[in-house]
């Protein structure tokens, strides 16, 4: 019968302990790249393993101590198996066809959903994000650590490509708890699909919705500044705003953070023209390229009044 408290039953004698200097260095380097916290750090802390940064164990003695600590901790057997399974994934050697973790699965009977989740976290910690998504977004899993997964996938996205973060969110549909996760997810949406982000904001409470709307405008304007005048900034003029958003839009560009944008005045004018608000336009003073346009509009509206 399998006894998880027996160190040699979990970590076979004939398998070399993988935590050499290179692997230790690689793990610590990856930890630094993700703001100093790996997912295994979050899991061990959540499960009551108090020793800070107990992973990776640097010697066999340290591994034995960690094994003992896991076995003696006040947590369910499935959680103990999950932590041991994570460690054993480091022992697998694909070059030699060895899978110590699979042997452990067969002996322990660890449930499939625990395997899926821990393997996903292991891939996240290895920064193999696309592979990790195959596991952590599995429909059989609860969305544990969803905020941290969203934050990691957005922060680690390369070349403003947020497809992995958005794919995880749409697949799992988690209820995000932290403002940071919500804002980073929303920013990723805004930089990827402005309409999707606008619709997403409308599903939030009003105070959150107004804050997100300001972030949305800032993101679209920033995106347009980087991509030039032919960018999607012009789409703002035709966006289907509701009355509240119309007020927030104008306030943002006249008295809010967007007032210093070079495109603020142009954007307001285009919006008013697109929405047939010619009486508002007639009260605006302008010079430069817009002067002739405004004079024409004023002349037109005045002749209609006469």
List the helices and strands and how they pair.
Elements: H1 7-10, H2 21-33, H3 39-46, H4 60-72, H5 77-89, H6 100-108, H7 112-125, H8 129-136, H9 146-155, H10 163-172, H11 179-192, H12 194-202, H13 206-227, H14 243-254, H15 264-274, H16 278-281, H17 291-305
Task: Give an overview of the whole structure.
By secondary structure, the chain is an all-alpha fold. It folds into three domains: 129 residues, no CATH class; 51 residues, no CATH class; 113 residues, no CATH class. The protein has 17 helices and no strands. Helix 9 packs antiparallel against helix 10, helix 10 crosses helix 11 and helix 11 crosses helix 13. InterPro entries: ELYS_dom. Its main location: nucleus. It comes from Moelleriella libera RCEF 2490.
* Count of individual domains: 3
Low-confidence stretches: none
The biggest beta sheet is recorded as: none
Euclidean distance between termini CA atoms: 98 Å
Strand content: under 5%
Order of helices and strands: HHHHHHHHHHHHHHHHH
The computed structural class is mainly alpha
Please bin the fraction of helical residues.
55-70%
The number of helical elements comes to: 17
Rounded average pLDDT: 87
- Count of DSSP strands: 0
Large-scale geometry: elongated
Rg, Å, rounded:
27 Å
InterPro entries: ELYS_dom (IPR025151)
Organism: Moelleriella libera RCEF 2490
GO cellular component, one term: nucleus
Subcellular location: Nucleus
What's the short story on this structure?
Keywords: Nucleus. With 306 residues, the chain is mainly alpha-helical.
């Amino acid at each position: 019968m399998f006894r998880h408290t027996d160190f040699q039953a979990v970590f076979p004698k004939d398998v070399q302990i993988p935590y050499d200097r290179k692997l230790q260095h690689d793990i610590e380097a990856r930890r630094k790249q993700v703001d100093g916290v790996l997912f295994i750090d979050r899991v061990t802390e959540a499960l009551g393993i108090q020793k800070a940064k107990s992973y990776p164990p640097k010697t066999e003695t340290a591994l034995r101590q960690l094994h003992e600590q896991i076995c003696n901790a006040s947590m369910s057997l499935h959680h103990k198996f999950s932590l041991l399974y994570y460690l054993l994934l480091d022992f697998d050697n694909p070059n030699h066809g060895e899978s110590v973790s699979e042997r452990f699965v067969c002996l322990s009977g660890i449930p499939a959903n625990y395997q899926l989740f821990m393997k996903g976290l292991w891939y996240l910690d290895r920064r193999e994000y696309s592979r990790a998504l195959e596991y952590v977004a599995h429909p059989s899993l609860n969305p544990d650590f969803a905020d941290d997964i969203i934050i990691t996938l957005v922060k680690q996205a390369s070349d403003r490509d947020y497809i992995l973060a958005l794919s995880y969110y749409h697949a799992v549909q988690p209820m995000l708890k932290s403002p940071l996760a919500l804002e980073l997810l929303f920013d990723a949406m805004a930089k990827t699909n402005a309409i999707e982000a606008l619709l997403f904001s409308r599903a939030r409470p009003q105070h959150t919705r107004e804050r997100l709307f300001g972030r949305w405008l800032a993101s679209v304007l920033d995106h347009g500044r980087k991509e030039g005048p032919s960018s999607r900034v012009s789409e703002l003029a035709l966006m289907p705003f509701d009355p509240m958003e119309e007020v927030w839009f104008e306030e943002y560009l006249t008295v809010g953070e967007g007032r210093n944008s070079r495109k603020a005045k142009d954007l307001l004018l285009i919006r008013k023209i697109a929405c047939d608000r010619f009486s508002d336009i007639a009260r605006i003073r302008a010079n430069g390229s817009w002067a002739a346009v405004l004079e024409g509009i004023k002349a037109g509206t005045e002749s209609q009044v006469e």
